Amino acid sequence: MRLMGLILALKLNVWMFWEKMRELAVDDPRRIFHCFKVGLALTLVSLFYYIGPLYDGVGGTAMWGIFTVIVIFECTVGATLSKGLNRGMATLVAGAFGFVVYWLASHFGEKAEPVVLGISVFFIVSAVTFLRFIPAVKTQFDYGVLIFILTFSLVSISGYRENKLFELAHQRLSTIAIGGFMCIVISIFICPIWAGEELHQLITCNIEKLADSLDGCVFEYFNESASTADNEEPGQKSQAYTSVLINSKATEESLAKFAQWEPPHGRFWFWHPWKQYLKISAAIRCCTYRVEALNGSINSEIKAPKFMKKHISDACMKLSSQFSMVLKELATTTKSMRRSSNIEFLVSKMNCAVEDLRNALDSLPHQLPLPLPPPSIEAMKEKNPCIWTINMPLTEVMPLVVVTSLLIEIAGRIQGVVDAVNELAILANFKPAVGKSKLRDNN
Amino acid sequence: MRLMGLILALKLNVWMFWEKMRELAVDDPRRIFHCFKVGLALTLVSLFYYIGPLYDGVGGTAMWGIFTVIVIFECTVGATLSKGLNRGMATLVAGAFGFVVYWLASHFGEKAEPVVLGISVFFIVSAVTFLRFIPAVKTQFDYGVLIFILTFSLVSISGYRENKLFELAHQRLSTIAIGGFMCIVISIFICPIWAGEELHQLITCNIEKLADSLDGCVFEYFNESASTADNEEPGQKSQAYTSVLINSKATEESLAKFAQWEPPHGRFWFWHPWKQYLKISAAIRCCTYRVEALNGSINSEIKAPKFMKKHISDACMKLSSQFSMVLKELATTTKSMRRSSNIEFLVSKMNCAVEDLRNALDSLPHQLPLPLPPPSIEAMKEKNPCIWTINMPLTEVMPLVVVTSLLIEIAGRIQGVVDAVNELAILANFKPAVGKSKLRDNN
Is the residue at B7 inside a domain? Predict the structure, then answer.
């Protein structure tokens, strides 16, 4: 019985692991291709072991090819290129540098040589290690500096033992070059995953997510609260989106970093303004913080009185649909890399909707019933209806005022996203718009 | 002249570079120690080259020691340990695994051997590469898996060429072990930088920063706007802080990850709840988003009428000072690792201040002068002063209502930070509080 239980548990675990793997693979099938590409590169490099003449040709340094493939090969072309070029350059420079230090040290006589070597390696390695603390070096060349330290130490120190240092260095360098070259060729020509393309899609997708989250959040607040029987808290889905948007910063930064190393591909030419994508994403994030705040006030304990909510509901819904339109237009602009003909029109409509919402809020007080109208007042009301205003504590109006204020603020932030996308359109020479889209005619 | 200009420009550049370096060093002098520690470890390992018997002892595989030192040595003890242990374990397992594959392949006869080897390496490497996509593996064991692939390929493939594979593997393993051991010993015993201690300090510091930013933001809004002659926008300093708080997530996560690998040190015992620090930081970040929103509404274009602002200014300032007190008490609790005797009292006072602010906001309408009192009204006002309320558009009240609402929401979020710190106090067995602090007596 126990044994059966154990076997069953094991089976379950294996099955769960398998399911997880399957999910990862289905989620992005290119992952599997990447794995096979690594396997292929490694198999090709290992031919230097299997085939006698090749092995002798590199003087038994085939190991360095394997090494290079495993360390360099990354998912995206940009990352592979960045690591490969970093490694190549660093190896060359450090090799030369190490050789010079070894040569200088060898002039001090046999006894003093290891001492001089040790001291100079100690200080040079310490100094170069310090370079890794410089933020600019850290982001773009960290791997190169690491390889520099490695190669420099290996060349200068092992020069003390190796007789044919120059030949050895030459052979190692050629295997490293072969390994690196193979990685780069395979990653570019077999199902390439371009960091630039990924970044482009991610940003487009994020603009759409922002639109959806904003839309969902406002819609749920003004519609579902009527039928609160629903189990789900309003804005739960929207909350999930905002957390994704807030947390995608690191991914975007690394993609932009690697995209700069990539050659022209697809629709992206040399010097494509990858950094502008980061500006767009910063504008999106800036907007997302407000959506997050909106979620917070929608889920707050103080609920706005229903009749008030109803009063501004239309204006809010209209504004939110304008947000959606603007954002979706931006997403289309980015996706198609073609200037939009009606973004300005949409933005001006959005600004009108903001004004409408302001007016709706301002007209709110006049419509409120007085909670406890004193008897003498009814008469006056007829004379001068305009001054009969709320006697309602401001705390009760608060949730609604906050939601309105946040929506108005979000309009400003969306303007920021529009500006960033427009700047991208200029920097990246987006194609001019074709004809006027249907939207304008409809309105 | 041109030459002089060139030399001057060069001089300036070198000087600027030097200044930057000096800044980095002064900012955190431990960076220099770290560099010298790396130099020391490398020099010690390179003794295996300089001293004959040692060199022969490891059969010329001293290179692997240098390699290990350079790749493993990180700033914090935890990172070094994590990389070292990952490397050690992965090398052992992969070595054994590679040996088995090589041994199996060698049974297929001389012709078939490279084919069998190639195919099995291709599939095993592809499969293991896929493991790196699993998030849990990626965060904690990515380096280990990389080393596994590396060692496995080297052992199984080079087995085809090397005659004394076993001896070679043994020698390499021992140099790797020596290099790793040296790194670990040096990083633990010479000016150690513990990831755990860093995380602890970072969180304490972040709580203080939150307090300062909140304090500064509210103070500047209610005080400085009277003297708007000042060039600086209100909340600029506070904004700088909030961006630091929002962006410190990645650092905290990596510190927490590495802290788990560290042995007990200082005040931190085994199984110190490092993950709880991440919960505290999440609560802080949650609060920071609201402070960011507060900054936004403080800098918004619509300014609240001064007389209204003045009315709730006291309540807001009081609440903000309560925030400060609670947060500073939390910082002290975390820093001293000693439970606080009056945090509950401070929290209840904070909640009272929230109520006061609510009341102040509610009493606001009654105090407002009617903008255009109709002539007939003056008489009625004396009879029934209570119903004379604002006829002011809600949009004008908006900024103030939003600020109030955000402050009230922040109170809720600070409660979240308090809960997270209390949980840490329980999980980490903080010492009991000593006596009642002065604060209570003062109140």
Answer: no
Together in a domain, B178 and B203: no
- Which A positions 255-274 lie with beta carbon below 8 A of chain B? none
pLDDT greater than 90 at residue B245: no
Test B39 with A358 for CB contact under 8 angstroms.
no
A156 touching B (Cβ < 8 Å): no
Name the pTM for this structure: 0.83
Give 10-residue mean pLDDT values along chain A (443 residues).
90 91 88 91 86 75 86 91 91 89 85 87 91 87 90 83 76 86 91 91 91 85 57 62 80 90 86 91 89 79 72 87 92 90 90 89 59 46 45 71 86 92 90 62 46
Residues A199 and A319 in one domain: yes
The CA distance from A13 to the nearest CA of chain B, in Å, is 16
Residues A113 and A212 occupy one common structural domain:
no
Would the CB atoms of B43 and A293 count as touching at under 8 Å? Answer: no
B342 or A57: whose pLDDT is higher?
B342
Three state DSSP letters for chain B: CHHHHHHHHHHHHHHHHHHHHHHHHHHCCHHHHHHHHHHHHHHHHHHHHHCHHHHHHCCCCCHHHHHHHHHHCCCCHHHHHHHHHHHHHHHHHHHHHHHHHHHHHHHHHHHHHHHHHHHHHHHHHHHHHHHCCCHHHHHHHHHHHHHHHHHHHHHHHHCCCCCCHHHHHHHHHHHHHHHHHHHHHHHHHCCCCCHHHHHHHHHHHHHHHHHHHHHHHHHHHHHHHHHCCCCCCCCHHHHHHHHHHHHCHHHHHHHHHHHCCCCCECCECCCCCHHHHHHHHHHHHHHHHHHHHHHHHHCCCCCCCHHHHHHHHHHHHHHHHHHHHHHHHHHHHHHHCECCCCHHHHHHHHHHHHHHHHHHHHHCHHHCCCCCCCCCHHHHHHHCHHHCCCCCCHHHHHHHHHHHHHHHHHHHHHHHHHHHHHHHHHHCCCECCCCCCHHHHHC
- What's the pLDDT score for residue B414? 92
Q: What is the pLDDT of residue A24?
A: 87
User: Between chains, do A402 and B397 touch, taking CB under 8 Å as contact?
Assistant: no
> At which of A189, A207, A237 does a domain end?
A189
* Residues A225 and A120 placed together within one structural domain of the fold: no
Pair B249, B279 in one domain:
yes
Residue B317 belongs to domain spanning: 195-365+391-442
Q: Note whether A117 contacts B: Cβ–Cβ < 8 A.
A: yes
Number of domains comprising chain B: 2
Considering the domain boundaries, does residue B235 fall inside one? yes
A136 contact B CB<8A: no
Which residues of B are less than 8 Å from A364 in CB distance?
Answer: 394
Which of A35, A121, A380 minimises the CB distance to B46?
A: A121
pLDDT, residue A384, reads: 46
- Determine the pLDDT at residue B442: 47
B348 shares contact with chain A (CB less than 8 Å): no
